[in-house]
Amino acid sequence: MDKSAWQIAVLFAGAALGGTYLGGYEWLRFFAYFGSWGTIGAVLAAIALGWFGFSVLSVCHRVGIRSLHELFLYWFGEAFGPSLSVLSHFFILAYSGVTIGQHAAQMADGSVSLLFVLLPLIVASVWMKKGWDWILFGAAISLGIGFLLFGLIFLEQQHVPIPNLGYQMNVNWVIHALLYIGLHFLLTLALTIPLVRNLTSIGSLRMGIGAGSLIFFLVLMIGQAILLAYWHDIHASDSPIQIILQQLFPFGEWVVAILSLVQSGIMMAATMYALAMPIVEKHDLHLLPLILVMLVVIASFALLPFALSWSVPIIASGATYCGLSLLVRFVWKRQLP
User: Fold this and answer.
1) How do residues 220-257 score in pLDDT, each as one tens digit?
2) Model pTM above 0.85
3) CA–CA dist 192, 62 (Å, integer)
4) 292 partner at 20 to 30 Å CA-CA among 175, 218, 284, 315?
5) Quick one: which of 252, 328, 318 has its CA closest to 91?
6) Does 109 have pLDDT greater than 80?
7) What is the mean pLDDT of the chain?
8) Of 80-84, 99-103, 181-185, 206-210, the least confident
9) According to DSSP H, which parts of the chain are helical?
10) TM segments (predicted)?
11) Cα separation of 269 and 170, whole Å?
């Protein structure tokens, strides 16, 4: 695998999993709640993200699209593209903030939770200062640590129950799988489109998306198995993996808390860099002021869940519908002669 394909694989897998995936709450809500139907939904989500991601990035490579903003302009035109692009960029930054705030509030109370908000912001600032290579290396290491951690938890299990398909037999699992695809489709495109211009061939793109999809699928399936195995302990929890590790290892809950926040900080750095660099290059701006503005926006939204818990689903829904608009537009354009 060449360097460009490796970079796409790392960022695609990281965005598909989500910055706070080590906490397990998002997977519990989107997949594990629905038992075996949720497992089917997870498989379909992995396949859909891989296929749609490769298809859209192939278009970007062929046409010469270098950023998420240019993709909106290309598909929605000058009338709607700029507004949808600004809205999507806003929701991506806001979503990065509220997920960190929600995750911090779930792990601790009071001033300690505010320190948990500060940690990923510091990590993101340090990684941004080190540069793109550090961000990619950090994303790869954090993915490896997450895979190893989930593997260790999985090996501790004696049995993984497989709920029959009569359990939770409704369409909610389809809706939740579609919402997960829409949200993470937007995130994967935001992080990977700027890398497409460095590709030497479409084969590198195919290899990168294939490897990233495989990593995403393996980690997601292991995580789903873990959540089903410990269902009675964690089904009502906001931090399921933390509870599981607390039972298995001394200080396990703190290990996953720190790792998750570091992971989210690295993915935050990747998101800001991917969104900022196309703007900097196009308009000949300085990177630092733009990054500082993004950090302020993310930090502001990271504090919002402490005051308004309902802000998290609203922001997540906004980002999801922006992603679904891209997905629907892509499918519609494929139907045109």
Assistant:
1) 999 999 998 888 878 777 788 888 888 777 776 777 87
2) yes
3) 15
4) 315
5) 318
6) no
7) 87
8) 99-103
9) 3-17, 25-30, 35-63, 68-107, 110-130, 132-155, 172-196, 202-229, 231-234, 240-248, 252-283, 287-307, 311-335
10) 34-60, 72-95, 107-127, 134-155, 175-196, 208-231, 251-275, 287-308, 314-332
11) 39
Q: Which residue has the tokens 């999985």?
A: 154
Ramachandran angles phi, psi of 201, nearest 5°: -155, 165
**Residue 54 · residue 46 · CB < 8 Å:** no
Q: How many domains does the chain have?
A: 1
Three-state DSSP at 230 gives: coil
Cβ atoms of 72 and 84 closer than 8 Å = yes
Range of the domain at 171: 3-335
- For the stretch 135-153, pLDDT in tens is 999 899 989 988 888 888 8
Contact status, residue 179 vs residue 33, Cβ threshold 8 Å: no
Contact, 239 vs 24, CB < 8 A? Answer: yes
| Rounded CA separation 118/113 (Å) | 9
Domain holding 330: CATH number?
Answer: 1.20.1740.10
Q: CB neighbours (10 Å) of residue 147?
A: 15
Residue in the block written with tokens 């911090």:
104
